[in-house]
Protein 1
Amino acid sequence: MKDKSFFYIIIVARDAGDKLAGTVEAALAQSYPQRHVIVKDGASTDGSFGRLKETYGSDKRLTLMSGPDEGIYDAMNIAIDAALSHAKDLSESENAWCLFLNCGDLFHDRDVLKKADARIRQVRVRRAARAHVAPDEYGVSLCYGDTFERKTGQIVSANPVIDDFACYRNLPCHQSILYALSLLEKERYNTKWRIRADYEHFLRLRYVRHTEPAYLKMVIADYEGGGYSEVNEDRSEKERQAIIRMYLPRKKVFAYDMYRALSLQPLRAYLAENEKTAALYQKIKRAVYKNREDMGI
């Protein structure tokens, strides 16, 4: 079996206030020792990066960078370059993983990375057995888990199987996805998409590189909500529609659009986001997904 995983926690920020330090502290509090935090700041003017540098400037567990960029996805690409450089110096490139947190997001508990390492190993063993090869010969490069939504106080279960319909509308939360660094080296974020580049990136990995996502069956991130895509809903939806048509046949997209309308998607979204109904909605969703869990591992 390969050596233990090495995790890069990437945080991009601009004028994030105290949330930046909070997310960095949550990353540093992880019990798993083989991890490194990379902060890419977009030339903040609110003093948040300066305060962070005063506190952690000499801390070897972090790489701190600040300077102009072309937006969140350009900043993420810059941080990937930093991870690749750091991994090369440590000779950790082969088994390195990246996870992206927005300012204000946290890990669900201090043992998330420890549990993720163990579950990635379990996935490799199980999939290798299915393929009738040794675990060391089976590569796993994209994993994901569930998300705790702080807005509603509920665990949002990820779809255990990433099929066409999941790609159409129900991908896991970006903060709860783990990417092999070697995969990100080959496929960066396309900055043409200002709001949904992470969505296009995931679909590109799935349909062009034929990456098989693995469900880890654990809660990874505590999601604050109110991110860039949520406050720019109209443009976000336009980008989503354009992206899905790049990867799925028009007839299938049309069928999914009809299903979405007939299944009262706006009502389901309201039930999922309403604090009074979210618990019941997520309970039903978990029951639906339960029978698919073994398929996604």
Protein 2
Amino acid sequence: MHIAVLGATGVVGQEILSVLEQRDFPVTTLLPLASARSAGKTVTFRGKEIEVTPAGPDSFTGVDVVLASAGASVSRELAPAIKKSGAILVDNSSAFRMHADVPLVVPEVNPDSLKRHTGVIANPNCVAIILTVAVAPIHRAAGIRRIVVSTYQSASGAGLAAMQELQAQAKDVLDGRAVTPKALPHQIAFNVFSHNAAIGPDGYNGEESKVMAETRKILSDQELAITATCVRVPVLRAHSESINLSLERPLTPERARALLAEAPGVEIVDERDSNRFPMPTIASGRDSVYVGRIRRDLSQPEGYGLDLFVCGDQLRKGAALNAVQIAEALVGVAAR
């Protein structure tokens, strides 16, 4: 396969290269693309240094799949040229996620939607990916009427500059120096704050609105009631989510645990005796979505409410891995 990685020098682009290599994706030729600012840089793939090429409309001749993580404006600009070249675009931005003719895909949840693509496939928001991997088995078994999700989102979701800012600020605070936020609007070290996306007229920020709309699309349930509160926390990698479910049919925590234990992409960490549950330190750098704190919601009629706590690496399953899994499904590579 002739694979282009658009945004190859960014933090997600670098993770895509790592995932392609680790999963032994059948790459015949790799074309790393980025903005003109990255001209002359190189990336490492399978032990070789490959020069980065500035991306443009003429970049995609002979390419089979484009794995893009260069931002919505770049994806919108280059998508027509990518489609014209005959390549399939797997896009990690928000540009096409809610387009009616573009599948929004989490391979463990809705792989059949890939059959409807017309040259563009959207990679969902990282929170929506982690959320739907965890709740889809329950939705299939008992039906979900309502989801209340509160997120604890790491600096990695805001890119490399935010991760570096967290590290620098932590040193500054511990050494007694003043902190000046740059990549993020507020101090991130030793602090939490509402997600830095813009607030809409309904009071929800852009991240929350994405999570709600995309979850409905991924689960093919436009009637699903869902509300989200998204928060930044001083963690480098891996997002966490507190999930409360209201069900259409009763489901015991024991049955939910068994369903999740069998679900692809899920690992159970639910050790009550040792008080060990999903944590960013467990999820960071790993492919699975970790689920624990599986318990009945005592505020709801018996059997109709569940609580979960979930962690997943935003750069892995929340971005790069999901995109590569989509590409694997497209070309018939066996799931790993």
Protein 3
Amino acid sequence: MKKNRLVTILFLAPCVIAFVMVIIIPFFFGLYYSMTDWNGVNTTVHFVGFKNFAKLFSTPDFIYSMGITVLYTVINVIAVNIVSFLLSLLVTSKVRFRNFYRAGFFVPYLIGGIVLGYIWQFIFNQILVSFGNAWEIPFLQASLLSKPSTVIWMMSLVNTWQYSGYIMLIYVASIQSIPSSLMEAAQVDGANYFTRIIKILIPMMANAFTISLFLTLTTSFKQFDMNFTLTNGGPATRFMDKPVKASQLLAMNIFNTASSNKMAEAQAKAVVLFVVLVVFSLIQVSVNKKKEVEM
């Protein structure tokens, strides 16, 4: 028994040590530096307490980035999961070439966020604009990424296109785990397709919805690479009578702050992002878990 325990510890030790070195220790160092005046250059730092945190909530660009990140996350959570669920229904039906569709829908997820951003930037800035000018469609004659009112929706569109195939696989696995006899029995009893989905399929997929909503929530809050290459935070707009970047999500706002040698302020923003993400995630998981029990 002791030998088995020793073997288990030896196998776990590399992972635990790596986790502590890469995650735990940097996390606490980050908390410390968020309460200093560290700029990334000076070797001496001074403790300033919660001064950096107090400054954030009077800074227009941070408040705007926080708000636009929440909006972007809400749009993505709704859009990605609806599209993914509909795709999962399609590829688990008796439609021809369903395996081909399943692979095709998943392929966009394999494209890296950096490459994805440049591809869609070309589509929005060149192809759609050329199409709008050729067909005299006023809405498309200027890039949809250049308008503060549409840029966040276009980012959500790109994210939905990329991420839906991945979430679809979670729903597909859940659907395939449901005994087909249940659906067949409901069909024999006279329940139509829509009723079977609402009354049987969705309740029995509650666990899959919990996982999928959590993944889309956390991924949207931490979005950076596609934001960086697709819009680079632009275009400019005004908020609280100050110029801000209309599509600068919180992760990119942190990156730009750190790039300006405001390391302590950037770390404070990162701590706020961490707290907000934890709160939203815990609320979402707890609500979905209760629904699982009810269902």
